Amino acid sequence: MGACLRCSDGSSVNIAKIEGSPAYKQLMRTTALLDDRAFTRCTLHDYALDHGTPATQATLGLQSFRDFLPPWLGGDDGCIPSLIQMLKALKTASESYFQSTLLSAEVVVPFPASGTFFDALRSASSSLSIEMPMSEQPPAGIVVARALGLGRECLDEPRKAEEEQLILTIDYSRAALTALLVYEECNIFEYRRMLHNISLGTDSMSNGHKDSRQSLLRALRTITNLPLWSGNGAGLTQINEIILTGESAGDQQLEDVLREVQREQTGTLVTSAKERRTKIDPVFAASESVARDCLDRLNSS
Questions:
Q1: pTM, 2 dp
Q2: Rounded (to 5) percent helix, strand, coil in the chain
């Protein structure tokens, strides 16, 4: 997890990226972290399976969130303190850098997270005297897309087909591959497809798995399969932008597979967060973008 601060003069400071403990990493693989609404609001393909079934839990190596709740909440005495440890480490790094007390923070994760997760996060933050002003944040890909200014203003009625666009966001790390196919119209962003797979993280892919490239190719082909029908009855036939974030955003195998998918598409798959003129570091893209979003909200209030 990384920490970034957005200053009032518009500059950003990437403060720290901290490796999670084994307990924290295991916590991030639990079934209840995924928002149930994600499985009703978007089209799911390939590895983005019904996470509640025992078969899928076995396939993805997931566990129940109950394993990490304290006994008085109906769980075992497990790993919920790992959230506190992670936030405490980031709080300490931030306060050390600025020589000031950190009072509030926002947290964003790559996948659509459940209310249970955000409740646990707020509880952990409160124990460290940190306020979380927002009840919950959208997935990181949407936050980054907004920060990069990819939204389009709609000035005319009726709306035109060219005012709709598709954005593919990919967060790639050692732990997982998370991809969202985001539909944007009139500066409103909604994910229409989601893929979150812990077996496609670079750690798993580098462990001698013979079919790793084919698995990655199949997953990205599926989530980018077009056309995608919009709410206006139009079939969207191209992806306008790609956003790559995460510590493994520059992975060569991912880039090769994306190029192959690009050749199969009639549209243009564009660029990554690192290559855009805004120069957002993929490792800190999510934290920098949510910090920018928070400052914009403060300035507009």
A1: 0.81
A2: 40, 20, 45
